[in-house]
Design goal:
The protein is 16% helix and 42% strand. It has 203 residues and is an alpha+beta fold. InterPro entries: Gp5/Vgr_OB, GpV/Gp45, Vgr_OB-fold_dom_sf.
C-alpha cells in the first residue's frame, strides 16, 4: 500500500521529467541543425534564391546573403558547387527557414591570394581587380589574369587591357600599346602615335 501511495505521489514528477527529457532531445536536435556547412546545388537568379545540400538533405529554395542590401546595395549570385554556411533560424529539419551565407573557399574555389594586404576579386570571365593596401597599388585586368601581391607592386599576366596605379605612376597597356604617367611626364609606346588623326610618331 505504501508503494502504491508513493507511485501515486511521484507520478506527476515522473511525467514532468519525461516531458523535460523530450524537450531537451528536441533542443539538442534543433541545435545540431541550426548551423551547418552546405554546398550550392541550384540557383534561381530571378528570385535571388538557391538550393543547398547539407549531408543527405537538400533545402527548398532559400534566400542567400549579399555583401550589402540597403541604401547601398551589392548583389552577388552564388555559383553551383560553392560552399556556404547554412543558418537554420527556424530550427526545423526541412531547411525551409534557412538562409545561406556564401564565401567559404574550397578546393574547387581556392583563395585568389595569400597576401594579407591584398584584396582581390575575379569575375567569371577571368577579369580581375586587386588593391594592395601596403604598397598603395591598384591593378585591373579585363582578361584572364593571375595576380600575385608583394609590398612593392601587384603583378599581373597580360590580358586584353592592363591598368596599374601606384602612388608615383599610372600605367595603361593594351597589347603592344602603352601609356605611362609619372612625375617626369607622359610616355607613350606602340607602333603608331597620332593626335586628332595626324600621325606624330611611328615605330
Amino acid at each position: 500500500m505504501f508503494d502504491a501511495l508513493l507511485r501515486l505521489q511521484l507520478a506527476p514528477i515522473v511525467e514532468r521529467l519525461a516531458q523535460m527529457e523530450t524537450q531537451l532531445e528536441d533542443l539538442y536536435r534543433r541545435a545540431e541543425s541550426f548551423c551547418r556547412i552546405g554546398v550550392c546545388q541550384e540557383v534561381d537568379a530571378a528570385s535571388n534564391t538557391c538550393k543547398v545540400s547539407h549531408g543527405e538533405l537538400l533545402t527548398p529554395a532559400i534566400r542567400f546573403f549579399n555583401p550589402s542590401a540597403g541604401a547601398q546595395t551589392e548583389t552577388r549570385i552564388p555559383t553551383v558547387g560553392e560552399q556556404c554556411l547554412l543558418l537554420n533560424y527556424g530550427g526545423g529539419e526541412g531547411g525551409g527557414q534557412s538562409v545561406a551565407l556564401f564565401g567559404l573557399n574550397s578546393d574547387r574555389f581556392p583563395p585568389l591570394s595569400s597576401v594579407a594586404s591584398l584584396t582581390s576579386r575575379r569575375y567569371e570571365d577571368g577579369t580581375q581587380s586587386a588593391y594592395d593596401a601596403a604598397a598603395h597599388v591598384l591593378a585591373w585586368n579585363n582578361g584572364p589574369a593571375a595576380f600575385s601581391g608583394s609590398r612593392e607592386q601587384v603583378e599581373m599576366s597580360l590580358g586584353a587591357a592592363r591598368l596599374v596605379m601606384t602612388a608615383a605612376t599610372i600605367s595603361l597597356q593594351v597589347g603592344a600599346v602603352g601609356m605611362l604617367l609619372d612625375a617626369s611626364g607622359v610616355h607613350l609606346s606602340g607602333p603608331v602615335v597620332d593626335h586628332q588623326g595626324r600621325v606624330i610618331s611611328t615605330a
